[in-house]
Amino acid sequence: MAAHSRATGKIDLLMSGRKTAREWPERAARYASVDPREIQRFSEVAEAWWDSKGPFRSLHRLNPIRLAYLRRHLDAFFEREPRDIHPYGGLTVLDVGCGGGLLSEPLARLGARVTAIDADSQAIGVATHHARDAGLDIDYRCATVEDVAASREAFDIVVAMEIMEHVSDLSVFIDALGRVVAPGGALALATLNRTLKSLVLAIIGAEYVLRWLPRGTHHWEKFVKPSEVSRHLRRCGFNITDVTGVTLDPMAFEWRTSRDTSVNYMMFANKTAAR
């Protein structure tokens, strides 16, 4: 638990100063993928990350779908037994844009050694304390993927779920992802497609009509087409093995995997060569 003690000390220091995106402009100038406005927006609701009925309730509902997707593809890629309750022992994971740790904690419970990063110190504080209370040893850091890439760290598995639609420069962001995935490692992504349907459902419907998400959570012009992600990934040495759509049943408020990638989609890729 030594890692937790070190991380907690760092987070306590961050939280005591109530650092938010207002303190990011100078640092963000060095990180082209960082959008301080996005950090500020999430910082304002960070304490609600683990409230399943709060502003992140849609992510709580989505989490089982994300985890099932990860299990299916990671088990196959790393040749792990699907019935094993700790299949990822010996593997390292980087959770990029981890927020309050909704994915980080289950991945740690599956046996992986998890490092989780977010540019919002408020979210990292919440995540650190929640993991400590749950008895989980997760290395939480207030950092960007560019920070990790600059340190020359590499991981067997990198997940970047629901984060690409919040970055400022997709090319820079994916380039950094390419540098933190170890050769022979795997990358899992999830984001929103930039279509008329996603504008109607993910923004107008979810934020303004049904109010499932706080207004301003998403900006349609920052949504990313699968073809755009694929182009950047191939440039960074990735082999894309799957693209799966995710659809929402609005009556039951339940997510399901689908062939329809017009709104939400997940992508799995592996890195075949050193960069």
Verbal overview:
By secondary structure, the protein is α/β, with parallel strands linked by helices. It has a single domain, classed as Vaccinia Virus protein VP39 (Rossmann fold), CATH 3.40.50. The chain is built from 10 helices and 8 strands. The longest helix is centred in the first third of the chain and has 21 residues.
CATH homologous superfamily - what is it?
Vaccinia Virus protein VP39
Biggest sheet overview: 8 strands, mixed
What is the radius of gyration?
17 Å
The shape, in one word, is globular
Q: What is the H-and-E element order? A: HHHHEHEHEHEHEHHEEE
Q: Uncertain runs with pLDDT below 50, 5 residues or more?
A: 1-30
Oligomer: single chain
What would CATH call the class? Alpha Beta
Count up the helices: 10
Q: Whole-Å distance between the termini?
A: 34 Å
